[in-house]
Amino acid sequence: CTDFSNHSPLLKIATMPSYKLYYFDVRGRGELIRYVFLAAGKEFDDIRFTSEVWKEHKPKAPYGQAPFLEIDGKPLAQSNTIARYLAREFGLAGKDSWEQAKIDELLDLSEDMFKEVGKPIFEKDEEKKKELLKNLTDVVYPKFVQLFEKSLTANGGKFFVGNELTLGDLAVYCAFDTPLKSSPNLMDDCPNLKAQRSMVEGLPKLAAYLKTRKDSHI
Amino acid sequence: MSVYKLIYFDLRGRGEIPRLLFQAAGVKYEDKRLKLDISTGTCTEWKTLKSRMPQNALPVLEVDGKQLSQSLTIARYLAKEFGLIGTTNWQQAQVEQIADTMDDLRAEVAKWIYETEDQKKKDEIALHLRTEIYPKFIRILETILEENKENGNASGYFVGGDLTLADLSVYETFTFPLGIHPDILNNHPDLQEHRERIEGHTLLADYIKNRPERPV
User: Fold this and answer.
1) ipTM score of the complex?
2) Could A98 and B66 be called an inter-chain contact, meaning their C-beta atoms sit closer than 8 Å?
């Protein structure tokens, strides 16, 4: 695409900001940000790297961590802050402060679950790892699917907040990417959640990406 | 004006940043504190209330009767309502970046708090906090203040030229660590000054001075 940004201040205002996402080549804490760009139909540079290459990028990261986003060269850190910022820019953040807060709630609840999902992955002791995995399937996943199903049902069952797709829908979809790999039936008792997942998967802007996306363990 | 009620345990914990926001905004609210039996660490009132909370967890903010969960969400919502989250989308992101980072620090400190069985492990965590964690987060915060000065913002507040949620998050997140490791800001005058700025703030001074002493 042609770069007009040097030609005139007016053109600079009219052109889209340039977005560069820096993250490892996994879903992890980068995937929700990628979903936001895709769902909004906004172009971005999806920079993915190995741990080795990360060493080169790390000095640029505001807090020394990934993901971070460069917006016209200005850096922004913290995956959920990035997701929320982009959602607000792209109109996926609800129609008022209250809806924004209800979306936020879902991100934070997803974060709670994400932290639990991470525990067995980072546990080195095999016995402890087995216990943590069992706790995920027996306690953690049932608890969270019920909370999300309740929230979705309370809003009418189709979208999590308001009556159109928001960051909330993307966040919950993203949160279950990893859990469903090891527990494919965990949504069986949650018809609305299951249907919402199919709805997100079927979105034209996401479907192609999801079909060809490389598998990652987290 | 909306009617606000904050429901949390009678601790600072995850309820204190919302409380500080109400103070900083000069907005009245019902500060419902569930009393704990300190000797057993249990809360009888919570047993009956828990199932009525949307996520079976606290804090919960009620706004004209509508409930909101998740402490960070509550903080961001109140900050937005009260104009304490920056004035542009970018500034809001700057504030949230800091608040999220402080929550990462809180989570690290919580590891020490929740290690109640193995003293050796607890001591290891404390050492890790002092040698790795505190320095890392202190460096992040000092860099922001330094960059602010270079960009002409010598207000001493973290975002823009005035108090925001970012300042309250930083202040409150260091309250507990300073209780167990009182010297951690000794060589960090900018952060000590920031702390004094918050403690001396017209709308916060009285509250901070007189708030109930609690273990967390």
Assistant:
1) 0.91
2) yes
